[in-house]
Amino acid sequence: MKQRFLSMVLLVFAMTLANISTTKAQLSGQDEEGVTLFVEFTFDEKDMDTALDLLSEMQMQVLENEEGCIAYDLLMSDDAPNKVFIYESYENKDALNKHNNSPYFKDIVKQKLPKYIKDSKIITMYPLNQDSGDDGEGESDNEV
Question: What confidence tier does 130 reach under pLDDT thresholds 50, 70, 90?
């Protein structure tokens, strides 16, 4: 169970690391819309515990310190025990930029995690429909 959780955490971070520049380019013009990332990290089996520890630390830091983060989930699959998937959802581009520039992101994702990552993939997504329910008009610029 611990290995699965840690694998999930590691996947999200690796995917985030591998595609930060792509994400920034894709986010131009999307400042006020929600942003969701789906990150996939692949690790050697021997590195899974370490990777999961690092990803779990990252998850804890994100959830404790980032008000603009809506979700930061670490996931694993029985079908791919050496992969970790991370589901990240942010209120807007600014919240994602704050995440990517945080000291713990730089320490964990940019410094410590890369040596364990065999492969990574990041998919950046935006909501098709945003309904805030606040103004009765059905559209929202800042909420997912």
Answer: low
Which residue, chain included where needed, has tokens 């998937």? 85
Give the chain's domains with CATH numbers.
2-125 (3.30.70.100)
CB-based contact 93:35 (threshold 8 Å): yes
Paired strand residues for 86 = 39, 74
**Tens-place pLDDT, residues 79-121:** 999 999 999 999 999 999 999 999 999 999 999 999 999 999 9
Q: Which amino acid is at 51?
A: A
Phi, psi of 30 (to 5 degrees): -115, 25
Alpha carbon 87 to chain centroid distance? 5
Cα separation of 61 and 66, whole Å? 8
